């Protein structure tokens, strides 16, 4: 199954186009798929490689998409779009389109091809009348998971009751084609860092004067996205930036407050004009979800004595004080500690 629909997108220097693979390209698509998977966390064995090479088989019931440069012939990336209920769809329902077997040429990485193929999938789903794009990835594929989170996909843990080949635990994601009004939480994108810095500074300044050293930390979104995970809340329909929070990468912590088996969050901020829209609640609940997905049992955080609105949010959501961890004196009193016990998803170590 194929379509001639093309999706040209400029990366600033050249124009990248996503289109259906031509029949004479399918063998090369198969080799590209094997090459892309071979440098990931799950290098294919011989049987898996044979399946990855079978782009011609996939094209019989699905749309094998390729990314090329302009009108050129070199294949830079590929993905397969399978309607729910067809041979190559595993998790998609009847009104959903499944995105599978994303692969980018090792020589073409860091050009945004994965994000481009994802946006093409959403555009194709909309054009064909599907309501959602669904995909899955392995628990150890943190790079792919960060890409999906940046692209506005959210976890669907209720569908994660099926294992992949070899007993591989899978993380399932979905993105609505036309989202309902509300707040969406995703990873920040590179072009948003300055705006995130301004939002956080304005939010903290609205609650009182900031020491210079702390203002510098609040503003340093670039370091947070490089060394940790910088999450943002956006308007699900307009994309307007509404808030931010920082979480550690898997296996790490942000502060001495977090013990083994715990996730700590820092620098929660809601845009001043967006207060009252549930932005802080959405970001904190997302942190609880991340802890569950990673198999952790508690979320912890610190809060300055003067941040009374934040304290109210935490207690409303069910956090409790951890007085045994309140040992640091700061301006205005003792730095408070809060914790929330979660029930982890057994055996999962994903984002």
Automatic annotation (TrEMBL):
Gene3D superfamilies per the UniProt record, alphabetical: 3.40.630.30
Key words, A-Z: Ribonucleoprotein, Ribosomal protein, Transferase
PROSITE patterns: GNAT
Protein name: Ribosomal protein S18 acetylase RimI-like enzyme
CDD domains: NAT_SF (cd04301)
Taxonomy of the source species: Bacteria, Bacillati, Actinomycetota, Actinomycetes, Kineosporiales
Domain of life: Bacteria
One annotated Gene Ontology cellular component of this protein: ribosome
